[in-house]
Amino acid sequence: MVKQIFLILCTGLLLLTGTALGADVEGSEDHPLITRFPESRIVYYHAVNYDEYELGRGKWDSDEEVYEDSILAAGRITRKLYYLPSEHSPMEVYKNYEAALEGSGFEILFSGVGDELGRYGSALASSIDFNSGFSSTRRGDIGYHVRGVADQHYLLGRAEIDGEEVYVSVLTGGASIHRRDHIALVTVVESRDLDDSQVEVNLDFEKRDTERLVLDRREAEGARDHPLISRFPASKIVFQTELEYDEYELGLGLWDSDSEEFEESIELAGRLTKTLYYVPQDRTVIEIFRNYENALQRADFEVLFSGSGDEIGSYGSALYQRDYFQGGTTSVSRGDIGYYLPASSNQHYLAAKTTIRGQEIYVGVFVGGPSIHSSIPLVLVNVIECQEMAEDLISAGDLREQIEMTGKALVYGIYFDTGSYEIKPESGEMMEEIAILLQESPELDIYVVGHTDDQGSFDFNMTLSKQRANAVVDWLVQNHGIESRRLQAVGVGPAAPERTNETSAGRAANRRVELVRKLE
Q1: Assigned fold of 393-517
Q2: What is the CA 473 to chain-centroid distance, rounded?
Q3: Please, are residues 271 and 209 in contact by the beta-carbon 8 Å criterion?
Q4: What is the pLDDT of residues 472-499, one digit of tens each?
Q5: CB 168 within 8 A of CB 262
Q6: Domain locations along the chain
């Protein structure tokens, strides 16, 4: 469509062709729909794949901060701010854009100058996130250029091209207290539907699989996507932490900054994964948030709470206080998650819940726009895998049946931190079932065999598997009074896999403890 738009308009815009004097801001380019006024240069450029944008078609009321009339358009949005050669007035430049658009078949929906507009520079500045886009000036946000602009001229045009509506707005103005240059702010909105299929939820993920996909070597070392939910395309992990077990307060209502409490929340406990992503600059909060929201809804998650702006309060600050800690992996100069959250603009948040294989899983998604700390959007995805329901526990009877049939029993309910041989407290129920098995079968002696997957060095895994087997033996002896002569710890590392190590599910199955009948 872009090429066809250019062919339609190139004749009408012949007056505006020319070569810029001075360098354009790095990363910028003219939109193929409309060329620049001769000898102007781009000092600010911002293009986003999808956003909603309010286009003024009436006077701006500074007291109420609303347009008397406007159009809400959605689609790809490109904003370019040009510095103009000093010998050309804002009116001359405005007239050229107006003639070019009218000559190319655009319908002029609104135009005005001076008092007919109100403070349009301030209106346009207030609709754009702080510090987004590319800028070649000392201040990196568009508001620096357009607030207080003198001799304002504005127009809004619309055309239908290939069945899609295209809007173009142009604001020209003279010098201000911030600069001496004349300016032209050109905004192009190409209407299109949102692609809400860019995030996927995988309900078949292995809940205790810690070998997760790494997509970008420049990310925080050791970081990986949670296997339940994919990242927004081209995002980069800048902070992540994984805790085998922790308590977590999930917000389900407005954050009250005075009391520093949620109006409603739920206390959870289980495996906790927090992942903070940076998102490419050409993507907007609304596009990112709706993709996560729609992905969870497609997977039949129950959305417990969702909101933005005044509906949620400063959720960035709330999550900072709830999620602040120095642990985890980071690829940025500041090593805590709170550095990014509180000041983020245009904040959106949702909390959702589902049940997978008898286990409750909660997801919290926070999306925020640029801030004083970051010029690009960010996403915080928190996944809380609650402790398994009691009926999922393997009983002593189940263990005995496995040993009688095959000579061994596979145990997956004993938990360790990654790289550690310290048994986690939530393993207590499984250890008690093993103790019951041994107490009820005094004739049974066993090898306690530790297994790992094949990730990491062979020597490390061999040592770790033996240490974990020893830890199980020590627990049974010290906490349940099992005679040590009946137990022998063995570590085989990755040498006896239960399933293939080529898949994450297979590696999860291979990280296990086996109870093997000892016949001697």
Answers
A1: 60s Ribosomal Protein L30; Chain: A; (3.30.1330)
A2: 43
A3: no
A4: 999 999 999 999 999 999 999 999 988 7
A5: no
A6: 2-191, 236-386, 393-517
